[in-house]
Amino acid sequence: MIKKNPKQNVRILTVSDFIDKDLTRMVEEKSLGPVDLVISCGDMEPEYLSFLKDRLDTPLFYVKGNHDIRYTGTNPMGCENIHAKVVSFKGLNILGLEGSMWYNGGANQYTEAMMKRIIFGMWFSIWRKGRIHMVVAHASPRHIHDREDRCHIGFESFVTLIRKRRPHYFIHGHVHQAFESLEQRTTRVGGTRVINTCGFTLLEV
């Protein structure tokens, strides 16, 4: 696990793709427990992200998914878009990448070449931070949790990013699937845990 120091873990709530009624209930009943950071991996209603930030009273980082067409500079309110950025939170360096593979020309869709250029264009931010601990994306890496229809094919450039930067975590959504445990959501690629957070996931890192 990643630790800022031996006494402090960071508890992160990650969400994507649909509003989970169990999560909403826990937030409203205040039974979720303390959360240090909320991360959205896309395809979430902006008003729901504002709700999570307000009720949990914590920073919220997000990337947009291929269905996120109502986001504006102020909606979701108080939340930070981290697409094509590297942000730091309590000792964690987090890199954000929005969108899915191009399939019909809609919002937040990228060809492999386009995504590769975005990542290449971040080289200075990545170099300046020194180490990337977590990648937050909407789509998955190619051949890891992805599917063969054009919309849900993962990016080869994400695989390269994992191989070169060796983040501790690569968290994505986009591929809808039901899970019963964190282990079912997780695939290990070397030292990287690739996690499909469809619905919601709680991590202590």
Report on this structure:
The protein has 205 residues and is an alpha/beta fold. It has a single domain, classed as Purple Acid Phosphatase, chain A, domain 2 (4-Layer Sandwich), CATH 3.60.21.10. The protein has six helices and 13 strands. The strands form three sheets. The chain has a six-stranded mixed beta sheet. β11 (186-189) and β12 form a beta hairpin. α3 (112-120) packs parallel to α5. The termini are close together. The model is unreliable at 1-5 (pLDDT under 50).
Furnish the topology, listing elements before pairings.
Blueprint: E1 11-16, H1 21-29, E2 37-40, H2 46-56, E3 60-62, E4 80-81, E5 86-89, E6 92-97, E7 100-101, E8 109-110, H3 112-120, H4 123-129, E9 134-137, H5 156-165, E10 169-172, H6 182-185, E11 186-189, E12 192-196, E13 199-204
Parallel strand pairs: 1-2, 2-3, 3-4, 6-9, 7-8, 9-10, 10-12
Antiparallel strand pairs: 1-13, 5-6, 11-12
Helix pairs in contact: 3-5
